[in-house]
Design goal:
Elements: H1 2-10, H2 13-18, E1 24-25, E2 32-34, E3 46-49, E4 54-57, E5 63-64, H3 66-73, H4 78-88, H5 101-125, H6 130-138, H7 143-148, E6 152-153, H8 160-164, H9 172-178, E7 181-183, E8 190-192, E9 197-203, E10 209-216, E11 225-227, E12 240-241, H10 243-253, E13 256-259, H11 262-270, E14 276-279, H12 286-293, E15 298-302, H13 311-322, E16 326-330, H14 338-345, H15 347-356, H16 360-371, H17 377-392, H18 397-411, H19 415-425, H20 441-452, H21 454-464, H22 476-488, H23 494-499, H24 503-514, H25 521-556, H26 560-575
Parallel strand pairs: 13-14, 13-15, 15-16
Antiparallel strand pairs: 1-2, 2-3, 3-4, 4-5, 6-9, 7-8, 9-10, 10-11, 12-14
The structure holds guanosine-5'-triphosphate and manganese (II) ion.
Length: 576
């Protein structure tokens, strides 16, 4: 496939991946590193190598070339990824490369959406759009924003869009999958999903229209917002409204603003604050959060005024914290949503509130102050306990302690109590597991203890290296490398260990060191010895199992002499 090679060599992998991930040049090498977009992490283990034209995450193990990156991040087929890269880089694509049914379907759906968006826009600017234009003017949306957001109007008759679609090119099966028209229950034929609604196109991160939200224009029309269903183009749980316009600003300002509604996005964005996004009328998902995190780890959540303190809000915040985001909360007064607030008090007032927005934990502490009597010791402790469960979920240990101390100070709670509380609850903390290769817990604990302490290595390795169970470990190569290093070298450096491993084993090692077992140096020896004991208990059994397996293999291979010899050995041992 020479086109593929040609494409790969003319595409700049660092620039392409840099569109999705904030990359930094790794000091002194040609590599670039950043936070992996495929799993949740705090410290960068994602790396791009422009010389080999490959990417790799040492945390979760994904890796590949630029085409594979696009396939995974945009959830595209191979052909779609090729096409997208070719288009973005102005490279002509040979026709035969399109010959993939799924790509054809997506291309057809994209074309229909583009056509629909243009039709809706022309409806809004045409004679039939007068009422809708008046409505928008009444809400203070200027012409400029209509263009920026490509707002439109769907015809109320329910046939306009359907009739525009060229049915010789788009057969009924494709129409049905578009989400734009719906099949009649009886009598055959289709009608438009969106009728007489104000239309908000929803884009993917590169700016292609993939769905719509439609707002009712008359009070009392239900539902107030009607959204496109899930289609081959539109996966609700991944998409954020306005992300393709906001992402540059999010990176530059290093935070995003999350609001609830389409109109809020429009109000905030057109007032000049560009780093604003919303979910499209569904509850926020972890995939959306990860998408945001690719651009910045910091976020300001701007609730609707009645939402603060509700159960849904709490879940929402936990989700953000679990994904490792740094969260601030902007709660507007006067019962106004962001759009209304800016219209009534001006963008400067909004900006001032934005800048002063407290961290989530301070915001919670403020709520605790209102809930409990902070003048009494008892009340302060209750207040702290109210905030503590959220602090416990902060994935990074040092950060968790720092926040706990800060909030304790803020509520006037004794720092010792905080320390107690947190060391007791350390193990109970419910932190999300990261993906990546799975290392059995006993191997993981043993490795982490060996890595944590020289004393543990000195005491345990001489015994461990004699044991045959090691050979059956998933991480046997990592152990072997540790043994060799321990044997050869006075000092033990992690980078030396990494340097001795093949990619797959290095991934295992990162799964081990990124796991959440915290082994302090002073506990490591005891831990390692405990692991050693439990391995010893298994040792004879597993040796026998291995012998048995070798007997079977020899039999299968017709090597009877060997099989007999091994069986003999097995017998001798089991008698022992
Ligand atoms: P305005 O009421 O015009 O100011 O719009 P808004 O964007 O401020 O909407 P609102 O605060 O009422 O709702 C927030 C978001 O929730 C909307 O932008 C929609 O995405 C979604 N939403 C609201 N009502 C509905 C509904 O009836 N159905 C669905 N599917 N989504 C809704
Ligand atoms: Mn609103």
């Amino acid at each position: 496939m020479e086109f593929v090679e040609q494409l790969k060599s003319s595409v700049d992998i660092v620039r392409t991946i840099g569109e999705y991930v904030r990359l930094k040049k790794a000091g002194g090498s040609s590599r670039y590193t950043g936070l992996c977009p495929f799993h949740n992490e705090k410290t960068p283990s994602f790396s791009v190598n422009p010389i080999h034209q490959r990417f790799k995450c040492f945390g979760c193990g994904v890796g590949g070339d630029v085409i594979e990156f696009i396939m995974q991040i945009d959830r595209l087929t191979f052909f779609e990824a090729l096409k997208l890269l070719a288009e973005r880089n102005g490279i002509a694509m040979p026709k035969r490369e399109y010959a993939d049914a799924d790509s054809r379907l997506r291309a057809a759906l994209l074309e229909m959406h583009e056509m629909a968006a243009a039709l809706f826009q022309s409806n809004l600017s045409g004679t039939g759009g007068a009422d809708a234009r008046a409505y928008l003017a009444g809400r203070g949306v200027p012409q400029e924003d209509l263009d920026t957001f490509a707002l439109g109007l769907s015809d109320s008759g329910g046939q306009q869009l359907f009739r525009r679609i060229d049915q010789t090119r788009f057969p009924p099966e494709v129409l049905e999958q578009s989400g734009l028209v719906m099949k009649r229950q009886e009598g055959g034929g289709f009608y438009d999903r969106f009728r007489g609604r104000l239309m908000f196109p929803i884009h993917d991160h590169s700016g292609k229209t993939i769905a719509f939200g439609g707002r009712a224009l008359r009070a009392g029309d239900e539902p107030k917002y009607l959204n496109s269903p899930e289609t081959r183009l539109y996966h609700k749980t991944y998409v954020l409204y306005n992300l393709h316009r906001a992402k540059d600003a999010i990176r530059k300002l290093d935070y995003s603003i999350l609001v609830e509604g389409y109109m809020d996005v429009i109000g905030v964005y057109s007032a000049g604050i560009r780093n604003v996004v919303a979910s499209c009328g569904t509850a926020l998902t972890n995939t959306q959060v990860r998408t945001l995190k690719q651009h910045s780890e910091r976020i300001v959540v701007n609730f609707d005024p009645d939402a603060a303190g509700s159960n849904a809000t709490e879940k929402y915040m936990q989700l953000l914290l679990d994904e490792g985001m740094t969260v601030r909360v902007l709660e507007l007064d006067r019962n106004l949503d962001p759009d209304e607030y800016i219209k009534e008090l001006g963008v400067d007032a909004y900006r001032a509130r934005l800048e002063k927005a407290p961290s989530y934990f301070h915001w919670l502490a403020d709520r605790a102050r209102k809930k409990f009597d902070i003048h009494t010791v008892e009340g302060r402790i209750q207040g702290f306990k109210f905030v503590a469960p959220s602090i416990e979920r902060v994935p990074d240990r040092l950060e968790r302690f720092a926040i706990a101390n800060d909030i304790a100070g803020y509520l006037g709670v004794d720092a010792h109590m905080v320390r107690d509380h947190f060391s007791r609850n350390q193990k109970a903390a419910n932190r999300p597991a990261s993906r990546g290769p799975v290392v059995p817990p006993n191997e993981r604990l043993l490795l982490n203890s060996l890595l944590a302490s020289e004393l543990a290595r000195m005491q345990v390795i001489p015994h461990l290296s004699e044991m045959s169970v090691i050979e059956r470990f998933t991480t046997r190569n990592v152990f072997r490398a540790i043994f060799t290093l321990h044997h050869d070298q006075v000092s033990f450096r992690f980078s030396d260990l990494e340097g001795r491993l093949e990619d797959a084993d290095r991934d295992l090692l990162s799964a081990v060191v990124f796991a959440d077992d915290i082994i302090e140096e002073q506990d490591a020896l005891a831990q390692a010895v405990a692991c050693l004991e439990s391995l010893r208990a298994q040792e004879p059994k597993s040796e026998m199992a291995e012998l048995r397996a070798r007997v079977q293999t020899a039999e299968r291979e017709g090597n009877l002499e060997e099989a007999l010899r091994l069986a003999d050995e097995l017998n001798r041992r089991s008698r022992r």
